[in-house]
Amino acid sequence: MEISAEVRRAHADLSVANGLFLDYIQAHPELLKRSSFEGIDALEDSGGYALQAWPTFISSAFMESIHSWNKALCHLVKVIPHRIFGNDTARFADFYQLEKDHASLVVATYANPRWVNETMSRGDFMLTADGFKCMEYNMASRLGGWHSSWATEGMLEIEPVRRFVEEHNLVVRRESTFKPLMSYLVRQCIRRFASTEANIVALVEPGKLTKAHGQIELFESMRREVEAVERLLGGRVRCRLLKGTPEQLKERNGMLYLEQHRVHAVIEGTYGTAGLDSMRCWLKGTVDLYNGPATPVMNDKRNLAMLSELKDSKLLNDTERQVVDAHLPWTRRVTKERLHPQAVAPVSRQEILERRHELVLKPSNLSSGQDVFLGPYLDDKTWTDVLDRAYEEGNWLVQEILESPPYLFQRGEVGAELHDLVWGVFLYGERDGGPFLRIGPKHMGGPINAHAGAALGITVVVEEGAEAV
Fold it and tell me: Is 454 contained in some domain?
């Protein structure tokens, strides 16, 4: 199997070990067969993705470099609405299409910075020839990609992977995505409520705590990490992860309860809200909500366009401008209205039509690659029809298409081919939550998601320069 210098360079840029894994595949051609990775199918994610048979090795130094600028960019995405709209409830309600009461809660959220700073997020990036560029941020507490968390440990036990790690004396991090999350949540409870208990409720949708929806594995993985945090704290704090629905959460004496348990934090794992009782306790400061009432605002993809349109304004300082310059591609709202007196003029309809081969159109409030339209894969009429819809609905954005380096991954029952990578990077408050990868064959084109046949990549973080004990 021939491997080009470009592919080798792309793999080695992630870590020395990742480059060596290509040599390992070449020396063992039987590893082109998916069946050689016995046990991979047992790790299959129930969140809609198949698992890629080959792991991706990433150096800890590489991940640390991502975390430094991801934290800065994520903060900007969250705060730019407040810099533009201030405490104007009516403007929040109008722009984000919120009920007046909900908009008031959003203003209350921004009035207390800790609610904005202490959120969960996952940024989606592509590593391009010009570095990492942000495609979108997901600010809800139900973040796709968490399912990869329990597959990493299993991947390291699959025979060819285990043998590669041992032969090269790799020091790997055996840390799930949930470990930093649950440690963060528990420590926030302890710090804020000075309690000997940390009761965290993961909200679920009624009838969906099933294997088919991936919720059982998700909850159990999180619960194990909460128990691990309790052991780490030497039993000084009783830590529990509880599951419930919004209707089961009740306010008593100004505090939130699930049955007999005082609730200290709520993870909004539903697509709705945490319920009125939870909201009242949140306003009183007796419970933490992740991510709270500002979620629809912070999760709106147009916030990226806001930053792009205001990059050279006085609303950003020089350091923030450098982060936007380095990591945000050209992004604009599809509208005829100027966002702010200091913003650039709206992009014209004619420019969007003429640059079809360079651009992607997408709505601001959908997920999982739904209604994402890449210009190069559409004809002129379809592109025009989509653009008409975008102007009519009023909440769409247009963005430069990004190009991934070529990465070689296993494909089909036997073989390998070139793929693109989308990096999902988790952030909990200011704490790095680690990555997961969506891996799509280059020949397929279009969005890289489960619906388009992409696979979930298992990342293994390695400490390079260290030898295994």
Answer: no
Last residue of a domain, one of 356, 372, 400: 400
CATH number of domain containing 344: 3.30.1490
Host domain of residue 269: 67-130+175-298
Which of 365, 400, 435 is where one domain is finished? 400
Q: Mind listing the pLDDT tens digit for each residue in 259-277?
A: 999 999 999 876 557 888 9
> How many whole angstroms separate alpha carbon 59 and alpha carbon 53?
20
pLDDT tens-digit map of 121-174: 999 999 999 999 999 999 888 777 776 666 788 899 999 999 999 999 999 987
CA angle, corner 51, sides to 46 and 54, nearest 5? 160
Count of alpha carbons within 13 angstroms of residue 52, beta-carbon side = 29
Give the residue carrying structure tokens 């559409």.
378
Is residue 28 domain-resident? no
pLDDT at 46 over 60: no
Q: How many C-beta atoms lie closer than 10 Å to residue 142's C-beta? A: 20
Instruction: Give yes or no for a contact between 334 and 173, defined as CB atoms under 8 angstroms apart.
Output: no
**89-96 and 100-111 helices, crossing angle to 10°:** 120
